[in-house]
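Crash report, auto-generated. Payload:
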Amino acid sequence: MNDSSQAHWNLDHIVSGLRDARVDWRGPRGRLRESGGDREFPSQQSLRAIVLQLCGALFPMRLGPIDLRSEVEDFYVGHTIGSALDALLHQVCLELHHMGRNQTEPESDESMRARAAQIVRQFGAALPQVRRALDLDVTAAYQGDPAAHSVDEVLLCYPGVSAMIHHRLASVLYKLGVPMLARIVAEIAHADTGIDIHPGATIGKSFFIDHGTGVVIGETAIIGDRVRLYQMVTLGAKRFPPGENGELKKGLPRHPIIEDDVVIYSGATILGRVTIGRGSVIGGNVWLTRSVPAESNVTQASLVNNMPNCGLGGA
Amino acid sequence: MNDSSQAHWNLDHIVSGLRDARVDWRGPRGRLRESGGDREFPSQQSLRAIVLQLCGALFPMRLGPIDLRSEVEDFYVGHTIGSALDALLHQVCLELHHMGRNQTEPESDESMRARAAQIVRQFGAALPQVRRALDLDVTAAYQGDPAAHSVDEVLLCYPGVSAMIHHRLASVLYKLGVPMLARIVAEIAHADTGIDIHPGATIGKSFFIDHGTGVVIGETAIIGDRVRLYQMVTLGAKRFPPGENGELKKGLPRHPIIEDDVVIYSGATILGRVTIGRGSVIGGNVWLTRSVPAESNVTQASLVNNMPNCGLGGA
Amino acid sequence: MNDSSQAHWNLDHIVSGLRDARVDWRGPRGRLRESGGDREFPSQQSLRAIVLQLCGALFPMRLGPIDLRSEVEDFYVGHTIGSALDALLHQVCLELHHMGRNQTEPESDESMRARAAQIVRQFGAALPQVRRALDLDVTAAYQGDPAAHSVDEVLLCYPGVSAMIHHRLASVLYKLGVPMLARIVAEIAHADTGIDIHPGATIGKSFFIDHGTGVVIGETAIIGDRVRLYQMVTLGAKRFPPGENGELKKGLPRHPIIEDDVVIYSGATILGRVTIGRGSVIGGNVWLTRSVPAESNVTQASLVNNMPNCGLGGA
Amino acid sequence: MNDSSQAHWNLDHIVSGLRDARVDWRGPRGRLRESGGDREFPSQQSLRAIVLQLCGALFPMRLGPIDLRSEVEDFYVGHTIGSALDALLHQVCLELHHMGRNQTEPESDESMRARAAQIVRQFGAALPQVRRALDLDVTAAYQGDPAAHSVDEVLLCYPGVSAMIHHRLASVLYKLGVPMLARIVAEIAHADTGIDIHPGATIGKSFFIDHGTGVVIGETAIIGDRVRLYQMVTLGAKRFPPGENGELKKGLPRHPIIEDDVVIYSGATILGRVTIGRGSVIGGNVWLTRSVPAESNVTQASLVNNMPNCGLGGA
Amino acid sequence: MNDSSQAHWNLDHIVSGLRDARVDWRGPRGRLRESGGDREFPSQQSLRAIVLQLCGALFPMRLGPIDLRSEVEDFYVGHTIGSALDALLHQVCLELHHMGRNQTEPESDESMRARAAQIVRQFGAALPQVRRALDLDVTAAYQGDPAAHSVDEVLLCYPGVSAMIHHRLASVLYKLGVPMLARIVAEIAHADTGIDIHPGATIGKSFFIDHGTGVVIGETAIIGDRVRLYQMVTLGAKRFPPGENGELKKGLPRHPIIEDDVVIYSGATILGRVTIGRGSVIGGNVWLTRSVPAESNVTQASLVNNMPNCGLGGA
Amino acid sequence: MNDSSQAHWNLDHIVSGLRDARVDWRGPRGRLRESGGDREFPSQQSLRAIVLQLCGALFPMRLGPIDLRSEVEDFYVGHTIGSALDALLHQVCLELHHMGRNQTEPESDESMRARAAQIVRQFGAALPQVRRALDLDVTAAYQGDPAAHSVDEVLLCYPGVSAMIHHRLASVLYKLGVPMLARIVAEIAHADTGIDIHPGATIGKSFFIDHGTGVVIGETAIIGDRVRLYQMVTLGAKRFPPGENGELKKGLPRHPIIEDDVVIYSGATILGRVTIGRGSVIGGNVWLTRSVPAESNVTQASLVNNMPNCGLGGA
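Recovered output after restart:
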């Protein structure tokens, strides 16, 4: 009557095989000793819900509930932010707890919770500035794309704007000391838009990414005001030699500095701690691993013709 | 007992900070004066549901409900399209209302609603042709990819086909005068597939995009029959000088014309109102900003060797 | 009172137009004759749910339910895998049934069901090895990215790891003879991460893709151990001449072989059945259509300077 | 493969049979002529959602969201009531529209909408009094039941209190002129609690129904303050002779008047426009069809022994 | 951090305790031997969904989707019935399979499936008559209750009508030989309305139950046309002596026959295979265990005064 | 365009009116002072989910997931109980916290949590006995109802059995010291079945309630083995005089004792701490307020004829 009537999967065998694999993995890390076996990780699903709430609260009449009326606006905003911050507090607690697992002197629950509440309070206080920064990003997108019909279309439809909403929220989290939450928020945007901005990146005012699929902006990148990027632009790191223990050194400045008013066309790749001078234009598919002065105009042709051995190099 | 017991977020402060930011943003635009404070924008979520219904109605036995039987097919199609068109009517009303906000002589509700109904009726009437066009796209994909095992696999699994379902629907909306709805449908496909086709683009029969991530096709692009594209191909615009008021001119023809039977390999970038002659092959990673005659075979090597200064230029 | 009060969509006309289109499409294929009109295709939605369950069962404390405790771990794993394999059995039946449609001597239901159960049993038995392989991939990612703070962050946040979870599951399905299910699983990852790995590809241990958007790995590609890839890398096929009947030949080895310890930087494109020797480094945006020996260091510059006519060719 | 593979239901025949039945039913009523074929009825599902929202807004810390904190309380209340009243407005419009169908001079849409908004505004303004009345009912339940441990338990667990929340809301709707909405709200409580209070019934302060299953209180019943009822009590109408056209006359006072401080035990039935004097006690299973003076103590025994022919009558 | 961090439930012990209890229960019944361990019971949840679909299909403009328009009506009806009958087929298969478990010569799957399809086909064919019968019930309710404002209110709000929709569907299932499905449908109505009508009961035209909570109508009851019942009426069986093996005999006629045009007031109890003559009125709370002739008027008083020893008896 | 466009609800006024009402209510109770303003009540919705999980774990093949196979049974049971007990722990914590609010020396969080875990552990350990007791109840129902076709039908369809599942779980909670959780579970059954059993009631083996709507069993009732009840039976308390402060005394034995093998027919009401001797039969609609010896046969007639003044009394 049913496809699975006569089926038998040897579940006991699979379950014990997976248990053995977990034991082998956990063994050297001693993970279970610290945590007592609980699941202590932040949740992508929760953060997705939190970001959705914050989007609604930041732009109530456009990203909030479909039938919101202005009389209800402030009630909605307060209720929604209250709910989002409560949920965020739980995620912050999870990350702080996870961070503290390997410390020799574990922090008390009470102290950790107070720290978490402080982080969330500061995050909440930053929301109005986030909104103001996003208004400038939206305006930049509207002015920068001849195909845009209205600022509302830009806010509702442009993946570059959606990526920036996530980034400006993730950036606050990153600076407040919860990098895993920040990273999860960034990856939500990456999954939705194909735009991968590390939450550690510093991005100025009126920033616009058009189309956006394949854009990668690294952890220590610094971007000025009024910069414009197209799809498949990479602001990455050059290859690092691994350290003595075979692992890569973490946290060093290793991504480009892009000054104000720069435009970088699709497919361009800029690697390493180089500086692109203000007002420069970087052409499509260009591969650049050195600094250029202000007002430069860099194209594949100019690289091939003038400086074949330095800029057009490997990683 | 609960993480948030002692928490206090200063919600009043956040709410008033966000209200101030909204007032500053809305002020110069006078948005609230016209609309009475309602949320008058089309909804991505609704359009996603509508497109899902239309996919089912267009391909009932493959994208419709999992247990559909042929006896029910026409009932299902009629019921589903009826429901989708009713929902679409509401979205069309929202876009027309939004467009009309800044007009000096506002259209009557009745007249606007009649116009909306007319648009939806024409959209519905176009569905059979959309299905026939998509059947050709599916066949082209099956014939063009050695890895495809059946036309059904192509319809169910190929992001390029999914992008074309969205595009052919969005294109009808665009031509009927509801560009924001069209754009939202296009962005749904962009988010799902990484393929960004502006709904204003004109695309001929039997079109196939393989893999597709990173493909960008601009608003005024024109593509002939039997054209094939690979991932990360851009059919874009060259840089325009901004107008006197600092904004870019909107709506001018500024993207390539691709004639019949052209193949464009991955990573190729073609910019500006150039024409790629019928039967041409554009190699991978090529950067092209000028027209080429029919049956051309353009590669990076050919560009470097023969015409270093014109085609391999910046944006 | 309601937007759609006076609307009339001529549904009868649309329904009959769509029916005609279906008849025209099905006619030459005789699809209905074999199947009796049922919907006989595997379902992406079901496979998405199955993969989600398997992710939880493979990594219960990190991808399983948010409040899982270690006392429940094995119960959860057994219950979840049992449920996932039952659901998978149904999908396997659908694919076998679909495959068998055009055979001259149709297999009995009983025999087909026994074959399906055997496939699912083997799939279940492979799960522990899949987990062990993924543990190595996670470790490779953690060691390869200076921005990674912990192995847990890598598992939870890295799209390259998510793509590999899908690929290692899809690969087992592909080898067990259900390529359409495998393909659907691969496309779920493609939609979520922008990484398009054909389930037929063979990938060794400790594989890491960073960022990942735009990566394409073809059906017959073979990748060794400890290989690292960046975003927008293509391991593709060169153009094939179509066969006599105008269709492309299917199934031939046509994608690259990447040996152990190779690194390929962003935007590099390697096409055809070429071999990249062990320990080689392929620079960003390189276009390569020939084999290179072990320990090669290939950059755009080296290609332009030393071998202008062979490697830097078109597709 | 599937149970329904060879099934065929003759759907065309069933559909036409049902269409004929609908035509026969609608024919004499001419329903379709007036309404243009829309579905113009209020929705039980919507009203259920509205009542749930109002319950939360009336008792935010006990019936509101499970994690509500007092800082968010007013924001939550305002947002929730705003949303509930918007949804209610739509339902009021549907009822007014439905009522107006058979009028010779149909009201304009604009006028009807203004009337609906006025009703909703008055309903909203009544909510604080509703809350105060319910607080008294809760207190009465707590004081009247020896098994009650706290006022909170009473609010959360007592079906009699749940029924009164619905009744006090339904009563406001009934008085504002939307009896069908009122009735739907009453039937939601009936389905959930087995307590059937007609929204037209007038009920005083500090009312308590214990257990409650099977209680029926008729449309024109009038109940004083501090009255207590047990399960299966009926306050009903005696049989009326049908009017000339065979229909029953509607709207006449035909249910009991219960004065202050009366207690009525389980299974008692009181029928007709009789008055139960203040402070009376009506025993279990008593069947009463005449008035009794204040402070009466009526039991089955007293009825059988003292007044066999008047009170113990049929309907 | 989490309430359950240090908790340990001894799950292994609970699981084995429950397994032992199941083994003890199943042992004597040998249930597992026949069924191979599958879950072979019909599902209340599925039947609830099926009945909801059938309600919509029977009364599309009132119980169907909230925004249904008449243009879509037949499509909706056909699609919904098709889907409901497919789901019903699966439930019928489950019941037939369950019935056949203990037979010495098990029926083939094919034969059972054909029988199931035949049952569903007959069920579908009966739907138009069910609708016509329900139209008469609705009219009877409207005419019988002075508080009813419209036939639409009656259909939407009256639990007695809801119970009859379920009963008329359950009755068809019962007669077609799937009594467990019938019983589940009846219990759905019982849970929702407090009205417990056994699907074996035979009920004539224009039947009306007012209020209804506590009504019980037994398996072999026969009810004529134009009968009216109030809340808490029981049409039950007298006590039977158990058979030799200690079990009660099943299936014998043991419930009352109610002839045409009878009214039975609230709380009346009629037990045994007695006949209530046409046009009789049975008063509230009456306890009756013998037949009465046509046009009788039975009250508690008449029973006490005139026939103290026969009618007013125990069970 | 939208019904609510011009609406304005004076939300500020409603919100402040409701705030005032809350302040007035809370004021005398000082509720907020203790709790810090959190919502500290158990949740009916959570308990409903927990009971649903427990039902599945107690009867996996009949109330568990529809497609459960016996291979998965123990995994499912362990996983589901683990998840249910974790959720229950949270609810127990909420009730203990709520209870402790008014204590002069508040318990530490740690101690309260340990007590809660102990309660949950004991609850879990009782589950196998609960299952065994329910098996006897199911058998009693099957043997006691001539209309029952199988024990499976009884478990799936009989509201009396559903009520007993809830009661036997609620009874364990009640005895373990969490009466509000117990009460909420009892009210879930009351809402679903119309059967109101106080969790404090003590009920023996092989208990069966047929039909059940309107049954009320009080807090201190004691019921022996093999007792059978019909719909609308009340085992209640007589009226108590209120104490000096106007409240009723709580917790005294005040409900009937029903000895083994008693049958009580529909509508019978037994009030006060009386004893119904073993083997007695209580007839329908009987009103009884005194004890009867073993093997009594009590009917309305016997009461009226033989003892008019004692048993047939008021409350």
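Post-recovery validation: Chain F touches chain C at residues 1, 3, 65, 67, 69, 71-72, 74-80, 82-83, 86 (CB under 8 Å).
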